[in-house]
Structure formats: structure tokens, C-alpha cells
Amino acid sequence: MSGILNSSIGRKFAMALSALFLMIFVLQHFVINLFSVINPDTFNEISHFMGTFWVIQYVIQPILIIGVIFHFVMGFVLEIKNNKANGVKYAKNNGAANSTWMSRNMIWSGGFILAFLIIHFIDFWIPEINTKYIVGDMTGMHNGEFRYFHELQEKFVPLWRVAFYIVGFVFLALHLLHGFDSAFQSTGANNKYTKGLQGFGKAYAILVPLGFIFIALFHHFTH
Amino acid sequence: MNLTLKIWRQKDSQAKGQMVDYKVTEISEHMSFLEMMDVLNEQLVNSGEEPVAFDHDCREGICGMCSMYINGEAHGPDRGITTCQLHMRMFNDGDTITIEPFRAAAFPVIKDLVVDRMAFERIQQAGGYISVNTSGNTQDANNIPISKHDADEAMDAATCIGCGACVATCKNSSAMLFVGAKVSQYALLPQGQVEAADRVQNMVAQMDLEGFGNCTNTGACEVECPKGISLENIARMNREYLSATLKG
Predict the structure, then answer these.
(1) Widest CA span in chain A
(2) Where does the pLDDT of residue B142 fall: very low under 50, low under 70, confident under 90, or very high at 90 and above?
(3) What is residue B145's predicted lDDT score, i.e. its pLDDT?
(4) Chain B residues lying within 8 Å of A188, measured CB to CB
(5) Is B48 left (phi over 0), alpha (psi -120 to 50) or beta?
(6) Residue B178 sits in a domain of what CATH number?
């Protein structure tokens, strides 16, 4: 067990585990956001629960942050190591003949997702932490009603932010189109369920980002 | 057909190297790619120039010696073949063909298109074998029942000729398809079980030591492999490695 992260396969495995964890997180984030379209009251209640329940705030949230940081840092570490493993660059390299654009450019799609996440944290996470833990207001109320739904709608008023989020979700889809299968392959899971998982992965990679785009547009046009 | 060749020329392992243009004429579409290279070299020798060094041996797709990165692909544009099996009918009259050595930090260029692939040998030496007594008392392998499925998969893995196309093709210069195949061919058979845990750990450790990159599952290696070695072998190696390492 010791030093597993020093081996190429161990690093792949750790990368895959963090990816699988983040994909579960993204799915639950999507389901909660979907309630903002279906029923704002339910969205407010879930948001308040997620934002105040101590298990989520003090246990799950730190694990998530560590998972996100680990995935990005390891992604860049692997990229540097892989570049070092390459010799002189080919004068002519026909990558499209044997692999998908998504699989060859995970570092770029991942890099844009990182830029998106920074903006997303500035937009939502930092104000939330400020309200709850610096100002000390844990009520989740503003002018006598839950503030979460209104805050969400306010954010999607500027068109530039909606456009930036849409581009971010497109890159998320591109990242997941390769990343979903790749994570299972890295854990060694290549078996009779692989074909089914690949189908599920494609559906996940397209439908979840598309759903996020729909939610952003919905709030932009219905505010 | 008449062709323009852009070929990597490098005097020795220390020299810088560069792409050099050559013209070849009256190339038959029935020639193999290596025969076309022979024509070029004859031309160069006749004009007093240094012929292009390239690896070759059996010229029938078995030995794994011929390498070359042709028009951006290992072993050229065809599928399931080595360079010696690539025919000139895959090209058109007037084409410009780019010919480079296999590129990877672990495959240093020795001269022109010849690269040092001894890293693969060292990985094999680290565990790509089974320890059996060959003093005359060896048990007949057919006495050990093996399922047809396992035997077929082991045989498929064993068809790897160690040419290095997987490494040359991989954007990370990863050797995991090669090592996955070598680990799998033993892991699938009862004779390989005794040393399975040590084998996979030692071979992966040697692979990392040689400076090969990390697999990111692009699948390019499987497409370019002349023997069609499947990515399933990488997944099996991952399972074998994780199981051996986590169990301690």
C-alpha cells in the first residue's frame, strides 16, 4: 500500500477515484438545481438544509474541496510528467486518426473547467461563506423569506455570466465524454458491464451539462 | 509513382537531427514500404551519400523490429500491420511522405530512424517470465486444464511483438499497452499465478523507472497496434497491480 501514489497506476487510480467522486457530486448538484426550475420553495428548503446541516458543511464540504483540489493538482502533475516522457515532438502527428479530440485535450477542457469553477466560487460559494460564517447569519432569510432562489436568479441576469457558464458546461461535457469511461478503465473495471457503462457515461456527459445550461437560460429569461 | 520523402536524419544519438527532403521515382505500388526505403538507400549509396538507417529484420510482421512514424502514425496509415507490411498502394503518385523515428524519452534515437527500445527488454527482465524447472522434468503444459476463453485471451495478449508502436503513438509515451499485454499473458494462465503479484509490481516499477508516461486511456495505442492488442489488457494490469499493492 505504501507509496502507491508514486506509481503510474496508483496515480491513475487516485485520479479516477477523485473523478468518480466529483461526478457523483455534480449529479446531486444538478438534481438540486433542477428544483429551482420545478419548485422554488423545495429548492429553498434543500439549499437551506445543504447550507446548514453540520455533516454536509463540516464533513462532506471539506472532502469535496480536497477532492476538487486533488483532481486538478494531480491532473497538472500528470500532464507535466507525461510531457517529460515525450521525446522530440513529431514534425507530423495525426492524432485524429486514432483517438478523439476529447481524449487528447483533457488538460485544456479541465483547465477551462478550473477557470469556470473559480468564477463559480466567487459568484456563489464565497458570498455564502461570508454570510454564514463571517457575518454570522445562519437563518437563510432575507426580507422575511428564503434568499437562495432570488440570489440564484439575480446571478443569471447578466448575459456575460450566462454565456460564460454555457461555455463552462460545454467544456464539462467534453471532459466527461472521455473522463467517464476513462475513470472506470483506470480502476481496472473493464468487464461485461463496460458497454452499458459507456452508454450511461455518454448520456451523463451530455444530459447533465445540457441540463445545467437549460437551468441557467431558464433563470436568465424568466427573471 | 514519384514521391517526395521528408525523412528525419540524425548522425548519432548526440547529434541534433533534422528533416531532409528526398525524391524517389518509379516506385511500384506493389512494393512494401521498406522496399521503397531500399530503393532510396540504393540511390543514396550510388550518389555517395550516407544511406538512411532504419530497423528491419523478418519483413513479415513478426519480429517487431521495423518502426518508423509515417505521415503522423506508427507503422503508417494502414491498420493491423507493421511497416514492413505497409504497401506503397496506400499512397498516391506525387505524395509527400513524412518519415520519423518513434518518439519517446525512453526510446532515444540511435541514428536516423533507429531507436533504442531496450527499455522494453528491461521491463521483460523485471518479471515477464515464469520460473519453471527446465532440467528435463518439466510437466507437460497440456496436463493443466485451462478454459478456452482464458487460453484465447492469453494467446491474444501474447501476440504482442514489442514493436513499441503503442509508445510512439501515445501522446504521453505510455508503455501500458505493452506491459498490460505481457502481464496479462501470464496472469490469465495457471502457470503465471505463483509469481503474479511480484511480476506486475516489478514490471510496473521498471516501466516507471524507464521514464514512460501515464496512460490517459485515449485508446490510440490499441488502434495503431499491429497485433490489435486490446485495452482490456491495461485494465487487467491495473486490477492486478492494485490488488497486489493494496494486499501488500
Answers:
(1) 66
(2) confident
(3) 92
(4) 235-240, 242
(5) left
(6) 1.10.1060.10
> Does residue A4 sit at the B interface (CB-CB below 8 Å)?
yes
Q: Which residues pair with B96 in a beta bridge?
A: B4
CB A144 within 8 A of CB A206: no
Residues of A in contact with B245 (CB under 8 A): 1, 4, 7, 10
To the nearest whole Å, the CA of B207 is away from the closest chain A CA by 9
Q: Which residue has the cell 464539462?
A: A172
Residues of A in contact with B235 (CB under 8 A): 185, 188-190
Q: Are residues B127 and B104 in the same domain?
A: no
What is the number of other CB atoms lying within 10 angstroms of the CB of residue A149? 19
Q: What is the pLDDT of residue B18?
A: 97
Instruction: Give tens-digit pLDDT for A32-69.
Output: 999 999 999 999 999 999 999 999 999 999 999 999 99
* pLDDT bucket at B133, cuts 50 / 70 / 90: confident
Pinpoint the alpha helices (H) of A39-133.
40-52, 54, 61-85, 101-104, 106-120, 126-129
CATH label of the domain that carries residue B107: 3.10.20.30
Report how many domains make up chain B: 2
Closest CA to A109 of A137, A86, A79: A79
What nine digits make up the cell of A191?
468487464
ipTM metric? 0.92
Average pLDDT, stretch B220-235?
97
- Asked which of B49, B77, B111 is the last residue of a domain, the reply is B111
- Give A5's contacts in chain B (Cβ within 8 Å): none
- Whether A1 has a pLDDT exceeding 50, the answer reads no
pLDDT at B137: 79
Q: Could you tell me the residue range of the domain that residue B128 belongs to?
A: 117-247
Whether A99 has its CB under 8 Å from any CB of chain B: the answer is: yes
List the single best residue of B107, B238, B246 to mutate versus A (max A Cβ within 10 A): B238
A195 near B CB under 8 A? no
pTM of the shown model: 0.94
C-alpha cell at A30: 444538478
Give the pLDDT of residue A4: 80
Q: What is the pLDDT of chain A when averaged over all its residues?
A: 95
- Distance of residue B1 Cα from the nearest chain A Cα, in angstroms: 22
Whether residue A12 lies within 8 A of chain B, CB to CB, comes out as yes
The Cα–Cα gap between A62 and A123 comes to 19
Whether residue A113 contacts residue A57, with contact meaning beta carbons closer than 8 Å, is answered with no
